[in-house]
Specification:
Blueprint: H1 32-58, H2 63-85, E1 98-100, E2 116-120, E3 127-132, H3 133-144, H4 157-160, H5 164-171, E4 176-183, E5 192-201, E6 212-219, E7 222-229, H6 238-261, H7 267-290, H8 297-311
Antiparallel strand pairs: 1-2, 2-3, 3-7, 4-5, 5-6, 6-7
Helix pairs in contact: 1-2, 6-7
């Protein structure tokens, strides 16, 4: 899935300095205190850079001036992040990752992106986002405090991981993520992992089968969140299709009637939307019930395990 331009007005909560310590494995060979200091230094640098850019925006500086101010600040943050994470590579992705956030301008949604490195395949369908755990935790806490934050983001890292809003916030796409079902993946010692079948879509839940695997791993002082194509031929399920088609037909009939009134406030518009959403939910529930017995499922579980293994960097 492509990653559209997301530069639209948006607010952003101020960042706070994290006090959490990095777990073993990050900056290998460095003392725990030194690793914690490096993470704290990064967050302090980001907070300062963010404040400088916000002040310039508030002062009415031109886009060119703000870009000129932001560019070296982002380069400094990127250098710090690369130093924190060390050498990384993931099969099927380009060698040079993209630093996030890609903007410090509070008027752009990119300023809400988590801090880390995004490794992507050529077509962007395979993505691994990596961040030091204390820095990522601090970002999530800041997002959770925003007025419009999804409740799932307020559950803490381990509570939020694997939820629809979590993947939407981290993977940085305009398409909403619809989660169909969790996939059974095995966690190693000292790590937390989750994987799921899902769908990135801009049209909402309909009768589309899942097309993506998403996954999260927390371990070795890092958080890795990613996605890859399912790459499975899933044949239509007549019983599930019937549920969707019936709901869609009812919704379409209501919309046709509402359109004739030329009244945007006609309650049938909302009723049709509700019926269609319920039809999509019914289709998904039907699919989830049938999925473990379908031919594609063992391969999906194996693929999820492979992605989590790649996220371990071993």
């Amino acid at each position: 899935m492509t990653r559209p331009d997301r530069r639209r007005p948006a607010g952003r909560s101020s960042l706070r300095l994290a006090s959490a310590l990095l777990a073993a494995g990050l900056l290998a060979g460095a003392p725990v205190a030194a690793r914690a200091d490096a993470a704290g230094d990064y967050i302090a640098a980001h907070t300062k850079a963010e404040a400088e850019v916000a002040a310039a925006v508030k002062a009415g500086k031109s886009d060119g001036d703000i870009e000129k101010l932001s560019t070296p600040l982002l380069k400094d943050l990127e250098k710090r992040m690369v130093g924190l994470l060390g050498p990384l590579a993931f099969k099927g992705t380009q060698k040079k990752p993209v630093f996030m956030p890609s903007s410090l301008n509070p008027d752009y949604l990119e300023s809400k992106e988590p801090d880390g490195l995004l490794f992507s395949g050529v077509d962007l369908t395979t993505r691994y986002f990596v961040s030091p755990e204390p820095i990522f935790t601090q970002w999530l806490a800041a997002r959770a405090k925003e007025e419009d934050a999804a409740p799932e983001l307020r559950l803490g890292l381990k509570g939020a991981m694997g939820t629809e809003p979590f993947y939407f916030a981290v993977l940085g796409t305009d398409a909403a993520f619809i989660k169909y079902m969790d996939l059974p993946v095995t966690a190693g010692e000292g790590e937390s992992v989750t994987a799921a079948l899902g769908l990135f879509t801009q049209s909402g839940q309909q009768n589309d089968p899942p097309s993506s695997i998403v996954f999260t791993r927390i371990g070795d002082g890092r958080v890795v969140v990613g996605t890859a194509d399912l790459k499975a031929n899933i044949k239509p399920l007549p019983a599930c299709e019937k549920l969707w088609k019936e709901a869609n037909a009812k919704a379409t009939k209501l919309e046709d009637a509402a359109a004739k009134t030329k009244n945007d406030e006609d309650p049938r518009w909302k009723e049709a939307e509700t019926i269609r959403e319920a039809g999509g939910d019914a289709f998904r529930a039907c699919f989830v019930k049938a999925a473990p017995g379908l031919p594609f499922f063992p391969g999906a579980v194996k693929r999820a395990e492979e992605l989590v293994q790649a996220a371990r960097g071993k």
